[in-house]
Amino acid sequence: MIELSGVTKVYDGTVALDGVDIHVRRGEVHALAGPNGSGKTTLLDVALGRLAPDSGEVVREGRVGCAFQEPRVLDDLTVAENISVFGANKELAEKLRLNRVYDRRASALSGGFRKKLDTILALADEPETVLLDEPLDELDDVSKRRLVEVVGEYADEGNAVLVSTHRLGEFDGIDRLTVLYDGEVLLSSPSEELDVSPQEAYLRAVERHEDG
Amino acid sequence: MKRTSLLKKEVFSAKNRLLTLLILLVLLPAVFAGASVVFGDVIPRDSPIAVVPADEEVTDEELEAVEGVLSVFAETSAFRGDYETALERERFYVAIEVPHNFASGQAGTFVVHVHGAVVPFDEPSKIVANVLDGSFSAVGTDIDVERNVIGESKTLSEYLVPVLLLTLVLVMGLTYVPHELRREKNAIERLRLETSLVSVVAAKILFYTSVLAVPVAVFQAVSVYLGYGVTLLSLPTLVFLTVTFVYLALVGSAVTVATGFGPLGRFVNALLLFGVIVFSNIIYPVGFFSSLRREIAVLLPTHYSAVAVRSHATKEIPSTFFADWLGLLLGFTVLAFFVFVVVARRHEA
After folding, report:
1. CA-based nearest distance B185→chain A, Å
2. Least CB–CB distance from A75: residue in B186, B193, B194
3. Chain centroid to CA B94: how far?
4. Which chain A residues are within 8 Å of B182, Cβ to Cβ?
5. Which of A125-129, B100-104, B143-147 has the weakest average pLDDT?
6. For residue B276, how far is the Cα from the chain centroid?
7. How far apart are CA A41 and CA A162, in angstroms?
């Protein structure tokens, strides 16, 4: 579980996060959406502890795993060696078809395989909370579906998942949606309380805001 | 794309790497040039030579007279301490034992002592003996000059074996370990989720310290095969090699982290490696070089490593002979560790 309360972060006079409240609960896939430059990555960095907020409070329970926008893997090691070093789950790796490239060095992988490997490493040792930054980027359709299944099952096991994504339409099983715009929360709601899909709710929230 | 655009790209690129280019194009050549000037002063002319009394009756005036004879090509000093220990610690490279009353024309014997393991001073010690002998013959005295080699005489090849091994250790510590750390730059963020940068580097240094056993064993095996009288697989030699490696690996890693794992760090580490090898006098004894080089060398912990490793490998000395120098080296290693911790914490902040 991660809870950010009234978090503000300013870079060089620009407000990246402005009094943001967000609660990522156990057993939920919480989607974070927003246009480019809305503060999503900054929010993930604060949630992860890579950045300290200028004000506000961050509460984390248990271990936090993370899949980064740019995969952070050991490039000189093979996929199997990466999985071994970080203690990642081999069954999940096989489900995402990473076993096909076990003997290949991470530096030689395609963008999609690197992304999948990074996600598998984020789930290594089963952290209670996992943050995923654009996990569907560069994935083929089959892999997207399987990764969404893996993430959903992981949340169903009682873990908290925060997904920052531009691909809301491809991410089934979102339990809660938060929309950021210029560092402010435009919308935060359980999916079941939305009268449209999360993707449509996001688009409407942004258009409504921009139309004033 | 126009050629001028490509040139413009190079100008922009150079502007963004100004510091690296300054080091490569200005600082490095300056250091090289400076080092070449120092090499110009090389020669036995400045070698530290001890003038020691044969017994307590020898007067200071007698010692000073001998100092004067040799001062043309050596840096002579009257010395009344344990000259054998001084030779083994390479404080002096030759010790001339002066008999009492030699100036009065009585018969006597000068003894030119040199250590058999400090091979580069074998020939200079013969020259010293010849100069003395010639001086006394010219004035028609009955004074003899003898040359005494302390310990077992070694060949230049035997002398070079521990020297080359230490050089390899320096290269590994200052370039290979930092290089490996740099290659993990991409994964550092992930590793930091699980552990600290200090732990990552500590594990790396620990691993490569154990790997050092391989080159040591190879050097020893080749030495045995070639029939060299060199002992590398001894506790004091291994301890000095290990501590030196850890010290330099910490320095190299601190540079790598402080420079953001970028190419600047590689240049700085290469520069440090060059400086350590040249100014610590890893290859040749510092006594062969100028007094300026000696003043620089004694400030560098790796100078003490060089003498200690070479001595333990080629001389029959007690294990604790260089205990004080080991303490000094450990002190620098602890200091390097704290510097690295500070640099790592700042990087993580």
Report:
1. 9
2. B186
3. 19
4. none
5. B100-104
6. 8
7. 12
Residue A82 structure tokens: 């990466």
What are the φ and ψ backbone dihedral angles of A68, each rounded to 5 degrees? -90, 160
Burial class (CB within 10 angstroms; exposed 0-12, middle 13-18, buried 19+) of A10 = middle
Distance from the A74 Cα atom to the nearest Cα atom in chain B, whole angstroms: 5
The residues spanned by each domain of chain B are: 44-150, 156-348
- pLDDT per position in chain A (212 positions), as tens? 899 999 999 988 888 999 999 999 999 999 999 998 899 999 999 999 888 899 999 999 888 999 998 999 988 888 998 898 888 899 999 999 999 999 999 999 999 999 999 999 999 989 999 999 999 999 999 999 999 999 999 999 999 999 999 888 888 889 999 999 999 999 999 999 998 999 999 999 999 988 87
This complex has an ipTM of 0.82
Q: Within 13 Å and on the Cβ side, how many CA atoms surround B116? A: 14
Two tokens, residue B175? 């370039």
CA separation for the pair B42, B24 (Å, rounded): 27
Q: Which of A2, A63, A69, A72 to mutate to test the interface with B (most CBs of B within 10 A)?
A: A72
| Cβ contact, residue pair A74, B184, below 8 Å | yes
A65 chain-B contacts, CB cut-off 8 A: 193
Q: How confident is the model at residue B42 (pLDDT cuts 50, 70, 90)?
A: very low
Pairing type for strands A64-67 and A160-164 reads unpaired
Q: Provide the pairing of β-strand B48-53 with B75-78.
A: parallel
Phi, psi dihedrals of residue B214, rounded to the nearest 5°: -65, -55
Domain A2-70+129-210 has CATH 1.10.1420.10: no
Strands across the sheet containing A2-11: A14-24, A2-11, A55-60
* B228: CB partners within 8 A, 6+ apart: B155, B157, B158, B161
Helix and strand counts by DSSP (H, E) for chain B: 16, 5
Sort out which chain A residues have CB atoms less than 8 A from B200's CB and list them: none
Q: Of B199, B155, B169, which is closest to residue B337 (Cα–Cα)?
A: B199
Structure tokens at B152: 């077992």
Residue A61 backbone dihedrals phi, psi, to 5 degrees:
-115, 125
